[in-house]
Amino acid sequence: MPEFILEIGSVEHQRSFNALDDFTRGYIEALFFTDEEQLCDDSDGEREMPSVAFDMATMESRFVGGNSFGFADLASDALESIVRDCEAFQRVNAALLESAYARDYDAEQAGRDFWFTRNGHGVGYWDRKPLEADSEEYESLTAEMVAASKSGDNAAWNAACAKRSALNDQSLGEQLSKAARACGGRDSYVGRDGKVYL
């Protein structure tokens, strides 16, 4: 799959973007990754989806032509709202995020997963291997489920499944997912001034 490259804009915009913490940069990247098509769709037909140039050597893609959107197109109100949302989520969930960062998981991905999870994009915290339940008991219950399935013992399968589900609910991924969903979703749109708002 080609890598999504967020368009940043001018050197000044690059400085502003780089001044943000990793979590917030990941969140903004995910916003434009998931909403590029929606942002480029205008019922008046004035905006059209830009074409994508794909470089096989680097496995990167970039929007070319058309009217693509990027960091420079964020309205100042939207950026302020994003920064507030990201700061609040990180502050309230500091202990969970610290535990996640102790695994093979970083703040930029956590920011992306905050956008994906709170907006129901079908991927997010609960879907990340490093955030899964990692106990021996969880693995043992998985083995019990497989054995019960092979033997046709539905009662044993259901019991192991219920115990494993309870452990999964305690995983970092599920805890962070619940926290993100509690924040409610955000919609992005293009205002009459051509800026991206939330």
The secondary-structure class comes to mainly alpha
- The total domain count is 2
The main sheet comes to: 3 strands, mixed
Span between N and C termini? 28 Å
**Count of runs of 4 or more consecutive helical residues:** 8
Shape: elongated
Unreliable segments of 5+ consecutive residues: 41-55, 59-66
Give the C-alpha Rg. 20 Å
What percentage of the residues does DSSP assign to strands (E)? 5-15%
Report mean pLDDT, rounded to a whole number. Answer: 83
Helical content, roughly?
A: 40-55%
Q: Compute the number of strand runs.
A: 5
Helix and strand element order: EHHEEHHHHHHEE
Strand order of the largest sheet: 1-3-2
What does this structure look like?
The chain is mainly alpha-helical and 198 residues long. 55% of the residues lie in helices and 8% in strands. It contains eight helices and five strands. The strands form two sheets. The chain has a three-stranded mixed β-sheet, with no helix packed on it. β2 and β3 form a beta hairpin. α2 crosses α5. The chain starts with a strand and ends with a strand. About 12% of the residues have low confidence.
Summarize the topology:
Blueprint: E1 3-4, H1 11-19, H2 22-40, E2 51-55, E3 60-64, H3 76-92, H4 94-101, H5 107-118, H6 136-151, H7 154-169, H8 172-182, E4 189-190, E5 196-197
Parallel strand pairs: 1-3
Antiparallel strand pairs: 2-3, 4-5
Helix pairs in contact: 2-3, 2-5, 4-8, 5-8, 6-7
